[in-house]
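Question: I have long wanted to understand how a fold can be written as tokens. Here is the record:
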Amino acid sequence: MSIDKGMFNFQGVMDTFYGYQPGKDDSEGRAQKNSFMANMIQSGFDQQLAKGMAQQQSQIAQSNMTLAADLEQRNTSSNMQQEFNYGMQSMGAQYEFQNQFAENQSKRDQAMVGKVGQETRLNIGAQGTEDRLTTVTQGEQTRLNTQTAGSEQRKGMVTQGGQDRQNIGSTGEESRKNIAASGDQERATLVAQGMVQSGVIGKQGEEQRLTLADQGDQERQTIGAQGEAARLTNTSSANDAINVGNAAAENTKDVGSSAARDTQGIDSNRGNENRLTVQETGNQTRLNRDNDATNTNRTQDNAAANTIKIGDANALNTKDVDSNRITTTGMQERLSQSNLAQEGRTTMGYQDNLEAKKANRQSARSRSMARSF
């Protein structure tokens, strides 16, 4: 027996119903059981009929599907056969039409070629006739033009000869006038050029003398500044030697010798620098003088050329311009030399200060070393 009876206890209900035996006086029970039996028999009979009917319907459906597939295959084959036949007939008709069209086109082309050839031959004949007529006419016109051109050329040569003779006479006369005027201008130019050169030479000598005087002043000032710087350096070295002698008696000779060597090296370096500065100043002065001489010569050449073209008035103006330029150049040279000397003195002052500081540091180191001994 089943332990789990379920929600409805179906097994128990069936057992109770099958085990129930109605009595002789239980007409309701007998009727119910008979009704149940009749219903069961009816349900089994209906089930058997349904199963037979389903089998029969399945066979009929399969037969219908087989018949439908056969009909569809036959219809498709027939349609494809008809389409193939129609396509072949259409292709045959197209071929016939195209062949007929090609034959007709060939006939038309042949007729067109013949017609074109005939027209071309007619055109060539007409063109030849026109060309011959044109050549005849052109020859006649060329002969007429040649005759006319020859006549005009002869007339032109006669006229040109007369004009050339007149031009030669006029050119000779003008050339003689130009030669005479050029001689007058050249003589006047030579006179004016001599005057300009005399003034330029005098002005140049004056500017050179002023420049030499300023250069001498600047050199004397530079020499004085060098001497003063040398005296200051020697005084500083002597004081350092005295201080070192008081700090350490045993090391006085060594420290004094080192200070003397430093002083000599400083003086020697300063002398070399001063000599190089003076030498460079001389080189620059000579270069400036050479440039002034070159510029003066160029100016004189330009003044002479301009004097030849424009005459005495422009020659005098050139003289004034050259004098002013030389004066300005001399002033600029003197200012340059003065500035150069001043810069040299300033540089020497800075060098003296640096050397004095260096000497002080050396003196301090020497005293420190003496104290350490």
